[in-house]
């Protein structure tokens, strides 16, 4: 029952009546209801307007289980705010919501300056009209005297709960007004009473909202034949056959618009083809279909950030922040988020995100900064995720809530949520419970649950592989392998290839391991197991070389090796060959090579020799420190392999297979040494001084040869010579265009220094000149001149080459217009290309001509030059 | 010998104090302004200077971002990146402008840019450079030679 306590102005009573009142109060306090009732009634008979007695009498009647009488008594003072409030509270306690609301409305009129009535009205209305209750709650929140306490928190939570219930029943699109209400209170509440209740409820709302999204937007599972087509499209894309991938995917996407996996691949292809809007749309749909998958907002954020040259950094940040919430342990995502904040000019927040990435032990964050694209195409629309029609999954919300908790790593809550489910468990619930049990280390229970799920879905590769994991953990290897092999042969079972590869590797069945890994990479494009697979592939290659070269296997066995397998070792290209065959690949290779040189080797392999010294003198503290730096999760060994895989991916995108281990003269020896380094981990852990010599040998290769070789590779693709021939070639191309065939000849004067190199790409530079020439001629130029000039920056010592294309056409383009991109397309392309090389475009005066477009590009030194 | 490391991270100070603690007292400053302030107090024999400062707060980067942005068609993002990537030279120039003539060892590989290094060392010397793969022993040698040991 609500409290009706009131401090009485007893002095207003006559002495005799006051005695009755005091006696009644004492009787009420001692639990003597009959005496108390008599006393209060006596007071009221003497003074009907003495409200404390009326309140006391009502309390006594409520205690005596006579609430109707209490209501009558309180109703006798309709103009007293305390009595009206007490009556309203009593009606609330009696669940007579409308009567309570009427009482609190009256209270509001009697005490218009008081904020309390709004809250009480909201409390009453929360049971009958949540929307109206919401308005009253907002009115209370907006009142300057409103203060959060435990009661207010309870009321606000009740209102929010009522809003959610109303929204759940509505056919309108779900709103987030309940969450917003509590969030607005949470901001104000700080550590006040009731704050904890608000926080708990808000967390629950957020979990439920994610669970509802999950339930509503579940991605479509692809049938085996469709998956096969998707896999072929992926392989085509990975091999650089983008058009072929596009043709294969387009009908699939139309036929299966709810497959997040398809859409994510489609987005990759679209992006590669420059269709950024379509890529963005596909990723937004994928994100809606799989709201708990961080890969989609991550990819979307990167697209928004890199695809538009930072113009949509704010939108990118929203997506990347979502990805970071979904996968807070991914340094890669934090780096991308930091980049987005940085591009948006929010440097402190960017620094915090970089720091977060750093704290996760990954050091390649600066590489990402180097990769910020300079291209700035316009974004046609701010694509929104289309509303997905709800799909009936048949699973209770609790299942989805448990998945949300599981995704957040809160196994205990996830299990509690599943245990609270009513009705028989289906295979999905068993599978989830099984994975939770496995995570919690309860192998027997996990086995039971997976087996039960398999009764309903005997051909689900995920279930088979999961059960295989459980059995392997129990040491039942033969059964585990049989299950994994069965899973791997089923459509969508590529993930099972990794544990099979691991087993084959451990059993020195290296060709089997390689075959399993090939199939794994053909079917998987990411996920937590991907990195492990990369490392395993390197280790398999390492052992294969050992088998090949050490003579451990006999000559007879060598002869039996299939010749094709031998030949395959020599197939593929080196990085340098890739650059020669596909110069456009350099822009993608350079950041990876730079990362290898500056992030992987720097601060790491330079320490190998001093670590060897420390090992010999027994400095265990220093060796332990180095051990982590070399072999930790983000140590030099793992990162080297990771970057090598990125190089291979660049090769695939350009239709070339890189063979770093066997063909590349730089990476082959480097990989051998990185493998050797990886093999020294235990020696360092056990402080074996014998490993010092090996460390020094490895240092010779990695820290000197590899480092220098990477520098040479980086220098290789960055230089383009500026000479008359380059300019003449562009000029000839423009002259050969149909529009110029019947035009009068235009003289071109060249004044180009020799021996100049710029950083950039030959084709792009040619395109820059073609566009500048074409623009000038279209503007009516009758004579042109091209000249070069070298300028130097005093502080950095860097030189720029300014290429001036002067013409006599009357034009009104200005440097400001170029900066604001108020320019026609040809010049816009020039700006984009030049921007990509770190240069600039401006308008300058030129003696004898109307103007000149000045293109400034960073100068590259000829390595053969001397100071 | 007391050496001031100017770097935006802590990799060098961590490595140097671990591997080159004997005979050298190391100090760290996290930015150009902080380094200038420390050097103004004296007592430092040489400076070990990182080149790239991509973790330094914007306000602590030396160089005029507006002037640099002019070179990138007004793009402040590229300008900021340029200042970060070449911050070591900005700090070096500021040291000399402030009259600080201590020897400086720059951690940057000028091996592919000999003409640039020739200009910088003539302009802002005494200075030497060490590539990223320099070992602690290389650092000791370079510092020793820079102070005439």
Provide a descriptive summary of the structure in words.
The complex is a heterodimer of chains A (867) and B (149). Chain A is built from 43 helices and 7 strands. In chain A, strand 6 and strand 7 (851-858) form a beta hairpin. Chain A is extended, with a radius of gyration of 37 Å. Chain A is mainly alpha-helical and 867 residues long. Among the domains of chain A are: 10-216, Tetratricopeptide repeat domain (Serine Threonine Protein Phosphatase 5, Tetratricopeptide repeat); 397-492, Alpha Horseshoe (Serine Threonine Protein Phosphatase 5, Tetratricopeptide repeat), CATH 1.25.40; 575-716; 719-858, Histidine kinase-like ATPase, C-terminal domain (Heat Shock Protein 90). In chain A, helix 15 packs antiparallel against helix 16 and helix 16 packs parallel to helix 18 (331-343). Chain B is of the alpha/beta class and 149 residues long. Chain B has one domain (2-146): Rossmann fold (3-Layer(aba) Sandwich). Helices cover 45% and strands 15% of the residues of chain B. Chain B has helices spanning 11-19, 32-40, 65-70, 76-85, 87-97, 114-124, 136-146, and strands at 2-6, 25-29, 46-50, 104-107, 127-130. The model of chain B has no long low-confidence stretch (mean pLDDT 88). At the A-B interface, helix 19, helix 33, helix 39 and strand 6 of A face helix 1, helix 4, helix 5 and helix 6 of B.
Task: Explain briefly what this protein structure is.
Chain A has 867 residues and is mainly alpha-helical.
Key terms:
A: mainly alpha, Serine Threonine Protein Phosphatase 5, Tetratricopeptide repeat, two-stranded antiparallel ribbon, 64% helix, disordered N terminus, B: 149 residues, alpha/beta, Rossmann fold, 7 helices
The sequence of SSEs of chain B as H and E is: EHEHEHHHEHEH
| Approximate helicity band of chain B | 40-55%
Count the strands of chain A?
A: 7
The 3D shape of chain A can be described as extended
The helix/strand class of chain A is mainly alpha
Oligomer class: heterodimer
Classify the beta-strand content of chain A into a percent band.
under 5%
What is the domain tally of chain B?
1
- The secondary-structure class of chain B comes to alpha/beta
By CATH, the architecture of the domain at 10-216 in chain A is named Alpha Horseshoe
CATH topology descriptor of the domain at 10-216 in chain A: Serine Threonine Protein Phosphatase 5, Tetratricopeptide repeat
Number of helices of chain B: 7
